[in-house]
Amino acid sequence: MISSVFYHLGKYYQLMGRAFSRPEKGSIYRKQIFIEIENIGLSSLGIVAIISLFMGAVVTIQSAFNFESPLIPLYAVGVAARDSMILEFSPTMISLILAGKVGSNIASELGSMRVSEQIDALEIMGINSAGYLIFPKIIASILINPFLIAISMVLGIFGGYIFGILTGAVTEHEYMYGIQYDFRPYNVAYALIKTVFFAFIISSVSSYYGYYANGGALEVGKNSTKAVVYSCIWILIANFVTTQLFLI
Amino acid sequence: MIEVKNISKKFGERTVIKDFSFTAEKGKTNLIIGESGSGKSVTIKCMVGLLEADTGEILYDGRNFTAMNLQQKKQVRKEIGMLFQGSALFDSMTVEENVIFPLRMFTNMREDEMRERANFCLSRVNINNANKLFPAEISGGMKKRVAIARAISVQPKYLFCDEPNSGLDPRTSLLIDDLIKEITDEYQITTVVITHDMNSVMEIGDKIAFIFKGEKAWEGTNKEILDTDNERVVDFVYAAKFMKALRKK
How close A41 comes to chain B (CA, Å)? Predict the structure, then answer.
């Protein structure tokens, strides 16, 4: 068990070493990064928007439901919605969702390339397949995920505003006052920093499981599942570590 | 010329190739034949460096490939073209982009020059009007031809073909065989073909090595293979009932 963990960690670091080695032709890698930004980031915009809107709505309504005490001002609903979205729901929950969507996509793409010998074809051409295939995905994730999370924060708070008012859980004035009350810009920076770590985990762990898939379609499927599961576990661990490092 | 000297390869306790030696000559189609599971694909993968042989040497025109570091191997690989069993075309690229890809990666050609070269290679393998199609939209035979076009686009010195006829009908197989032979003659490439197809053996086998359970059991030409007394080769060549009947006559 322990030897297996070290085996995979060693193999993962070796793969990352190859992925970050000097590219054969920078211009092609740059082009690939833009393609991956579209594949990984822009295609996830819809699901991120829908989930964020409803997450913000539910947090607002539940907060209003729980803050029934006359000692707690109603604007606390806005504060709760804002801080929940910025500190945890947007960076962590959305990253976990992206681990499912993007992670399985990356793992199955690379796995299919492996079993259909496309990765071997790249190697035979003298191309560093890990660099060509994985490096642009990691860079694209690191660049685009903070934008997705920032959009998620805004939409989550906006969802809380719309649904909070529509359901009568909170007034417009109380909510607007709440989301501005004791606002700390550092929290946004902290959330975006941890998003960068999560983006690296999603893209690199998924790439690892896809790149080393072998066998056939069954193995590719199994490795895609492993990619999602291990990405989620590492995101949760990284969330704990970054919270300790940056927030406490 | 590619010289394979006494290579061996084990997977765990299982020996897949044992002390295999073979010389692939320039301008000839050199075949490595044998039954399924005899170690042909492992041999070719060791030759191109996708697998590392446990012992032995592989020399490309005198350059010891097995002793090279990764960067040196990459340089040699730029002189290699390979046709994979499943073609291994890149799904996300069109036929034309597949052929252009190695040019884009390793040359400083202009866009129009690359397209011109790609079109030349595609027409050389008789592919016309398919430039904008994706691999999923073309037949197996066309995929093989596009893969050959991609392999020759960078004018390789060495061409490796892993089961070039697998999954193809006899007519298309002949077309692919002819193409490999023509290209080898025309560009004086050192071609190594892995196959178990007797049609290919008879059509293009300038030099043949028969591999049995990882060991070389016989070596000769396509003219000699039908007359050999080597039992293992005879079992392989005359495996079909009608061939056995033909031999008795």
Answer: 18
